[in-house]
What we know:
Number of helices: 8
Number of strands: 12
Helix content: 55-70%
Low-confidence stretches: 1-32, 344-352
Largest sheet: 4 strands, antiparallel
Amino acid sequence: MLKCSPIKPRDSVNIRGIGTLEISGISLNLHVSLGRMAGVFISIALVGLAIVFQISIHQVDEGYRGVYWTGGKLHESISMPGYHFKLPLTRFEQVQISLQTDRVTNIPCGTSGGVTVTFDAIEVMNQLSEDHVINIIREYGVEYDQLWIFDKIHHEINQFCSSHTLQEVYIDLFDTLDESLTNALQRDVDKYAPGLTIHSARVTKPVVPPGIMQNYERMELQRTQLLISTERQRVVEKQAETARLKATIEAEKLANVSRINMERKLVEKMTYQKIKQIDDSIYLAKEKAKADSKLYFASRRAEANSLKLTPQFLENTMYEVIRESPKTLFATSMSKVFESESTPSKGSGEDQ
């Protein structure tokens, strides 16, 4: 608290205590509260600490890693997602390691024929490996993708256009541009910035001058009409092919049915023939058995008869045959007949 006392002319300087000052007749009463000054100093210190705390505490988002510089020197360590503390003079940046898409716009290029076309946008999907964050940032800085994606896209597109005609750029080779651009980017990145992966590149259709575009539209219309005519012809050919295939299938079906019937009849005939052969074999076996039986019977009978062929048996058999056989006798009278029957003579004739 500062108080000013009335001015009194004095020739001396008198300092009384701490709160009163008298100089050359001017008396100033300074009543300063030590407690108030201490409170001000404490407030200033707390505000300073709060500012330092606000500057030092920082957050690393998910999908990012924190990198730090002190005095322009890059730290070798990185921080994970979450809250972290750093010194006020330490610089901090977040580096994305999750999948990201860089969009490069308005890319002019000139074809080999001298026509200038413009690609409105090219999107490059890329990802930085966590293990290579420090090396990439040390070599190319936080804006590494400006060099290896944005600037590289312009270079590759101009190289492609300068070595091809407008027809090739706009129509013939456009469907291969995505893959060739991805391969070109990845080839240089693998050589100079390992750890950066180019997943894909999507190229929009280039914008050509209006006059040339009208010619291409007419050509596209004619091509469309040609494709329609060709497609109609293919439909007619397909219908004819379908009819031919249907007739062929029907003929094959009838042929298969006929073949199956013939095979069935042939099988029936072969089965009947086999049955006939079996019957003949059975009959032949029976007849053979009968013949063998008769032969056996005749042979046994012949053996038995051969045992009977003795002189006595033959003479007896002769007499029996003569006795049972009818006889014709020639004589002059009936008495001679009866006599000849009782005593047969050797010179009489006999007929059976």
